[in-house]
Amino acid sequence: MTARIFCTDAVSLWSTRRKNSDREANGDAAFIAKALGDIARAKGMSQVARDAGLSRESLYKALSGQRSPGFDTILKVIEALGLRLHAEANQG
Fold first, then answer.
1. pLDDT score of 10 more than 90
2. Within the chain, what is the greatest distance between any pair of CA atoms?
3. Which of 7, 40, 47, 70 is most enclosed, with most CB atoms within 10 A?
4. Are 32 and 74 in contact (CB under 8 A)?
5. Which SS3 state, helix, strand or coil, does residue 7 take?
C-alpha cells in the first residue's frame, strides 16, 4: 500500500518541493514523519503541538525524520494538522 496525505496550503508547498515523494515514502515511516514535520513547521509547531496534545519538544523529536514515531503520534499530528490519511492499493 502507498501512504498519501491530502490537504491544501502547506502541503501544496511541501509536495512541490518533493516531486518524488511517492517513490521515497514507500515503506519509510521516518520519511513520512519528516514530511509531517515540514508541514507542522509551516503551520506553526507550537500550535500543532497544542492541538495534538504533545509537548513542542517531543513533537520536534518525533517529526525529525531521525526516528519512526508511534502510529498514535502520527494520527494525533495528522488530526492536529487537519489532514486525512488515505490508503490505496498499489496498481499492479
1. no
2. 42
3. 40
4. yes
5. coil
| Radius of gyration of the chain from its Cα atoms, rounded to whole angstroms | 13
Give tens-digit pLDDT for 44-84. 999 999 999 999 999 999 998 888 889 999 999 999 999 88
- At residue 86, what are phi and psi to the nearest 5 degrees? -130, 125
Residue with cell 500500500: 1
Residue 82, C-alpha cell as written in the block:
487537519
The C-alpha cell at 86 is 488515505
What lies within 8 Å, CB to CB, of 9 at 6+ separation is: 42
**pTM value?**
0.70
* Nearest alpha carbon to residue 7 among 48, 68, 65, 56: 48
